Every structure is written in C-alpha cells, then in structure tokens.
Amino acid sequence: MVKKKRVVRRAKKAGKPVRAKAKKATKRPKVKSKKRTVKKAAASPELNLEKIGKVTHYFPHVNAAAVKLLKSGIKIGDKIYLKGHTTDFKEDIRSMQLDHAPIQEGRKGQEIGLFVKSRVRIGDSVYRL
What we know:
- There is one protein chain.
- The protein is an all-beta fold.
- Helix content is 0%, strand content 39%.
- The strands form three sheets. It has an eight-stranded antiparallel sheet with strand order 7-6-12-3-4-11-8-9, with no helix packed on it. Strands 1-2 form a two-stranded antiparallel sheet.
- The N and C termini lie far apart (80 Å).
- The mean pLDDT is 82.
C-alpha cells in the first residue's frame, strides 16, 4: 500500500500547521463563436503576367539574384515583378550580368545576375510587367 504525502503549510502568525486546500474545478462559461467572414483577396497581379524566370540563388552582400530565364529574354529597362512565399515587389532592371560581364539582354536558358532592391529567396518567380 502506497502512502500519500500530506502537504502542510505553516501559518505565519499562529505557528500551527495548516493543511493545504484542494483547488476546486471551476466550470468555464461557454463562449459562442463568432461567425467568420471570408474576405475576398484583391485581384492578384500574377493572373495576367508572363513568368519569365525563377530565382536560383541570392547574394546578400551585393543585393543580387541569380535568375534562370525560362522563356523569352529580358532587357535593361524592363519592369519585373518578383513573387514568392515572403517576397512581393516590382522593380526596373538596372543592372544585368552573365558570367560577371555586363549584358544588355538575357535570353532563354541563360542564368543571369540581377541587381535587386530587396531580399529574394530561392524558388521565387520572376514575371514581366
């Protein structure tokens, strides 16, 4: 037979041992749940855009992204839209490189370097505006 331990607290003034009281289980009142309304998202700019590439690497010390071009090429001055899980911004192409040499136009199949204003992640999509 296992003996139960008895919890004893001492009263400050009386000096007599006082037995601890067990906490009573209290019932919580039921809260009626509010109806959740689903907000419709604004029309995504992704719907009518042409996907031209995918980010394969990001270089944080120079704010540059390596982009694999999947479709038609891009030129300096084109506007692009970068979209990913946490990435969502538009930008003009100001600088583009291929094998560390500046180029004016990138073609399908090339992996080019682009200067970007914000952090991008591997797998982010690149769209032409």
